[in-house]
Amino acid sequence: MDPELEAFIPFFPELDLTDPVAARATAAALSASAPALDISGMEVEDRTVPADPNVPVRIYRPRLAQGAVVWLHGGGWVMGDLDSEHPWAARLADGSGAVVISVGYRLAPENPFPAALDDAYAALTWVFEHAADLGIDPDRIAVGGHSAGGGLAAGVALRARDEQGPPIRFQLLNQPALDDRQTTWSARHFTDTPWMTRDRIAVAWRHYLGSAPASAYAAPARAVDLSGLPPAYIATAEFCPNRDEDIQYALRLLQAGVSVELHQWPGTFHGSQAIVSAEVSQRQIAELGAVLRRALAA
């Protein structure tokens, strides 16, 4: 493991996803401790997407931005909101020069699948339909997310393809949660890796799926056909239970004729880029921005 990351592991708080309220408080406290970013060079605005129910979004607009990404936070579908995602959405906007629309989707277990996916899809549709008012090029809209949010982004891309919905330019998938079955080598062997363990991921999937059977929109690795999807960037962490399902998804996309950039970050663990003092984290954050900038170039 990267020594700069390993030094922080003893200071991680306990995370019990069987108690969603406590888990949300823990995650919020960690996010609040992230170093602040100077956002004086961009506009930040809270809006509401009309839906049933309405979906809160926070829009980050750097100067001269035209391309955009509908961004979905991580947190195992159980944790996270617009405030906890603020440090990372702002960094993505700053690094990419793109408009970032951070989505405050409904959380499980109170709102199991398909609530979060419906919220994410409503946000994408709203951004596309109001692109002119938002100052966004409708041909330069991406979807992206981290962890559970990455899985949601992949599900949104599948749904948009199947329903002939808004055209998506690109998928930015950072350590996405794609497969509820947990049968890969990394899912079976990384049982006690930092922050996100096999058991925590299993609990998160149970919260998210509720009583519904897993579908391709909930767990995109279950999709039989991956053709016709937007180009993708997929980043994985070496010591992450999701690692192998993400790599397999990238290979299946390639085999389906979808252009993919895959980056496996050595010495990292799930979510470790939040330790922004580490050199490898700085490179990860910078790469997300640079990849999105290239993908949305005119």
Automatic annotation (TrEMBL):
It comes from the Bacteria. The keyword Transport does not apply. Residues 69-272 form the Alpha/beta hydrolase fold-3 domain. It holds the Pfam family Abhydrolase_3. GO terms for molecular function: hydrolase activity. InterPro entries: AB_hydrolase_3, AB_hydrolase_fold, GDXG_lipolytic_enzyme. Keywords: Hydrolase. PANTHER family: AB HYDROLASE SUPERFAMILY PROTEIN C4A8.06C, ALPHA_BETA HYDROLASE FOLD-3 DOMAIN-CONTAINING PROTEIN-RELATED. This is Acetyl esterase/lipase. It comes from Thermasporomyces composti.
